[in-house]
Amino acid sequence: MTGNEILERIRAIFEENFAIAPERVTLETHLFNELDLDSIDAVDLAIKLQEMTGRRIKPEEFRSVRTVADVVVAVESLLAEQE
């Protein structure tokens, strides 16, 4: 899965689960400041990413995620573990 494919999947997750328009979700978008996610939303996002990748996300790995680009990198590393 490419970075662009991951971004599109993340946009779909935000739209379906958080009612956030896909055009608001760019690599530079800050999850908490710009998209108004809270800690519960972050847990929900982590669960959706686990479903998407089939891999468990360790909480300590997800704590440093701040932007959509960080989410893409986290998903890429989860997918790389499968190979």
Automatic annotation (TrEMBL):
Post-translation changes: 4'-phosphopantetheine is transferred from CoA to a specific serine of apo-ACP by AcpS. This modification is essential for activity because fatty acids are bound in thioester linkage to the sulfhydryl of the prosthetic group.
Annotated Carrier domain residues: 1-79
Record-linked InterPro entries: ACP, ACP-like_sf, PP-bd_ACP
Gene Ontology molecular functions: acyl carrier activity
Broad class of where this protein is predominantly found: cytoplasm
Location relative to the cell: Cytoplasm
Signal peptide: none
Superkingdom of source: Bacteria
A Pfam family it matches: PP-binding
Known pathway: Lipid metabolism; fatty acid biosynthesis
PROSITE patterns found in the cross-reference section: CARRIER (PS50075)
Modified residues (O-(pantetheine 4'-phosphoryl)serine): 39
Family: Belongs to the acyl carrier protein (ACP) family.
Protein name: Acyl carrier protein
Source organism of this protein record: Caballeronia glathei
